[in-house]
Amino acid sequence: MEQVKLEGVITAIVTPFNSDESLDLASLEAYVEHVIGVPGVNGILTCGYSGEVTSLNREEQLQVVSSVAEVVNGRIPILTGVEPTSTRDTIAFGNQLKEAGATVLQINTPFYNILRRGFINNEDVVVKFFRDLAEGIDMPMTVFQYPVSSGVNYPAKTIARLAELEHVIGIKEATSMETYEADYKAVEGKTAVFADNNTYTLLGMLLYGSQGSMVGIGNVGVHLWTELYGLVSSGETTAAVEHMNSKIVPLINTFSRDLGQTKFSFIARVKEALVQMGLIPGGTTRAPEPAITQEDKEEVRSTLLKVGLLT
Fold first, then answer.
1. CATH class of the structural domain 8-236
2. What are the residue ranges spanned by the domains of the chain?
3. N or C: which terminus of the chain carries fewer CB neighbours within 10 A?
4. What is the pLDDT of residues 51-83, one digit of tens each?
C-alpha cells in the first residue's frame, strides 16, 4: 500500500456542472488549480457530499477523479468519496477509482439502509467490512462518522478497532463534540482524526487536537480556512477565536446553519459564492437539489462582502 499522511486543510470541493447538468470538467480543472494554489491546502476531497456524489453515476465519478488527478499531478493527496452498496461492488469500484488516480478512499457508511442499521453495533461486521476493503483494494481509507445525516454512528469501541487497521489512516468526524471526544480518545493516536463539522463546533474540534479539517463550506474563501488551522496549530488560540468569530461564523450562518434541515440548498449557495467570486462560471446543481433563488444570491453576496471575499 502506498503510504499517505493526511494533515491540515483538505478541501471538499464542489463538482461544477454545465447549464444542462452535464459535467463541466474544464471548470473543475481550473477550480482545482485555484484550490491547491492556496498555501496550507494539503489535500482535496472529490465526490464527497459537497461534490454531489449522490447525483453522480460511477462513470462520472471516475471522470471527476481522473480530471482532478491530471491537474494535481501528485502534488497533494486526492481523496474521493465512496457510497458503498455491497462489499464486492465497493471493492470493484474502489479499484477503478484507484486506477483513475485517487490516493485515498473516503468510505461512507454502508449501514444507513434501515435493514442494516442494527449491524452498526456489531463490531465484527463493521471491522470485517473495512478489512475486506483493505484486502481487496489495498489503498488508504478514511472512515466517515456522520450520524446526523446518515442516521447511524460507529461506537467508539468500534472506531478503536478500525484505527488498528493499517489501511485506515483517518477518521472524519461530522459529529457532536461528545462523540468526537470519545472517538479521539478511542484511537489513541493510532490514526488521524479530522474535523468535518460545518458548524460552530469546528473550532472546538481543532483545539481539542484534530489533525485537520475537511469541510464543504471550506470552498468559500479557502484561505480563511487555512488561516484558521494555521492559528490553531501554532497555538495562537485568541487569534483563532477572533478569526472564527469574524470570518468563519458569518459563513456558517449563511451556508451551513442547520445543515440538512433547511429549505435552501447548501451546495447551491456554496456554488453561488464561487460564481460571485469568479471561480466557476455557473452554479448549476442537479435536481432534485433546489436551484439558487434571488434571496439566496442576495444573502450570499451580503456575507461575502462582510467577510471580505468581495469588495
1. alpha beta
2. 8-236
3. C
4. 999 999 999 999 999 999 999 999 999 999 999
